[in-house]
Specification:
Domain Carboxymuconolactone decarboxylase-like: 15-97
Structural class: mainly alpha
InterPro entries: 4CMD/NDH-1_regulator (IPR052512), AhpD-like (IPR029032), CMD-like (IPR003779)
Number of strands: 0
Protein name: Carboxymuconolactone decarboxylase family protein
Strand content: under 5%
Number of helices: 5
Largest sheet: none
Order of helices and strands: HHHHH
């Protein structure tokens, strides 16, 4: 898995939030053995897309690709969640996935 961390530029404004994000979320939760990083990425991308969390979604789409998910698998997950989480959420997510896939292909 790509080493994840909270944006360090936020530490000047919210140092404790950055610390907790790094130590609890990324160094503990993401490293637990109950799910693979690939599966955690699929869950994370799905939830972020479903909840329309566009600011965090591009980063986690990249992590998902780094963790072994393919563009096709992510596209299929986004298509599936359109029926449960809403069409606009899915269209936004797939637009971001296309942009990231295009950037990586270039």
């Amino acid at each position: 898995m790509a080493k994840q961390s909270a944006p360090l530029e936020l530490a000047g404004v919210a140092p404790k939030l950055v610390e907790i994000t790094n130590e609890v979320l990324f160094q503990d939760v993401w490293e637990r053995s109950g799910l693979s990083p690939r599966d955690r990425s699929l869950v994370t991308v799905s939830v972020l897309a479903a909840l329309y969390r566009g600011e965090q979604l591009p980063y986690h789409l990249g992590v998902a690709l780094d963790n072994g998910l393919t563009v096709e698998e992510l596209s299929e997950a986004i298509t599936h969640l359109a029926f449960y989480a809403g069409w606009p959420n899915a269209m936004t997510a797939v637009t971001q996935l296309k942009r990231i896939a295009d950037e990586r292909a270039a």
